[in-house]
């Protein structure tokens, strides 16, 4: 029982981080049909900005910089690169996002080195003991911060002002012709996905240590979480990610910690086999 | 106030579909654009509304040429569209569909406008909290029209209203359109069903092969051989 609770905590923590990336996928996919595989690299970049660069600057300032850069990188890459490729072929834009991820990876490797860098949690090293379950301040912060962001986003989308975004999700062309400025809303959603990715990187770094290569794994696992729940809906993408985090934790705890990554990708393959149309069927038909 | 479409050409990629179309709609009149399937009516409309970028020509409305502008600019300038196939926002409730339309053009008195639309279509009031995707076809058409009307447009553009509508519902909706025109609204109707369209409009244009063949009052058009030929002669 104690072990179970401890694994639930671990699963919620990793699941929340996956969920932050998955939210980005879901938001962008629903709005544009685009799958942004650079979100993992953007998370990594967010981590480096918060922990490695500008060490003389107070950390809270670096965190703010990281969030702002996260939003800007996301918005600029869509409006300058992906959008134009997507008009001709969505797949080209998706592949382009992989290429951009590698560019980010190389920039970080060349400027900060390729070795893993430990990242001290901004929330300190306190550990709470709740009965037999231990939870660190950082783990608690991961769950709380993510929960606040998820709730905030869902509440925003459900509100009267958010109805314009939901209208765009349902039928972008009709929304536009009714006077909704869909290009502007899309830009805002890219900014949101960029901030969420940066937060994921900031929260993940103390758990994983920073490495230029952490992005790809985050990008893929976040994607698995998103499609596990359903890429076309924000709430289910978050739920799928948390489920994936829990699955991974239980598998690591009860079966084999070494094969946990294999499990994640096995889930990925299974989901794609069982309901591939949910994913690919819609990518082909969505227009920019 | 008049919508003046001048020498509008619209194509997909390098293939021109509509060539040098000119037409006019004044506020307070109903004008139809008729023609057989594939004549280029919907493409013309997409060009006017900014959903397809025109390769040439102008779409002038109240002194501004909207041809090169993004689609949303028309709604803000007082042109509302009832799209073909209705295109209501399925996951949104009936009320949300209407609210979103009012807010999209920065409209005030949201509640009053929605009330007025529901007075016009009482069925929508009964269904106000339901997701629009669950309405019947006729109810969705009413919602699509109500959604355009709550924007308080000066010009209403209606694309293929008769498609998939039961005659009774069509009659009901047509009655509403007549009332709107006498209230001073301009209406541009694109219709494959020429007889239905001409019963609602005072003037019309006939399209075929991506061009306007002729235009005139519906009485004049009813006597044109070309109309009869396009619709009945080839059969």
Q: Report the major sheet of chain B.
A: 6 strands, mixed
Helix and strand pattern of chain A: HHHHEEHHHHHHHH
Q: How would you spell out the order of helices and strands of chain B?
A: EEEHEEHEHHHHEHEHEEHH
User: Proportion of β residues of chain A?
Assistant: under 5%
pLDDT below 50 for ≥5 consecutive residues: which ranges of chain A? 277-288
Q: Do you know the CATH topology of the largest domain in chain B?
A: Rossmann fold
Major sheet: arrangement of strands of chain B: 6-7-8-3-9-10
**What is the name of the CATH architecture of chain A?**
Orthogonal Bundle
Report the count of strand segments of chain B: 10
Q: Can you count the beta strands of chain A?
A: 2
Any idea what the radius of gyration of chain A is? 19 Å
Q: So what's the CATH class of chain A? A: Mainly Alpha
Domain count of chain A, please report it: 1
Organism (chain A): Pseudonocardia dioxanivorans (strain ATCC 55486 / DSM 44775 / JCM 13855 / CB1190)
Family (chain A): Belongs to the binding-protein-dependent transport system permease family. LivHM subfamily.
Protein name (chain A): ABC-type transporter, integral membrane subunit
Subcellular location (chain A): Cell membrane
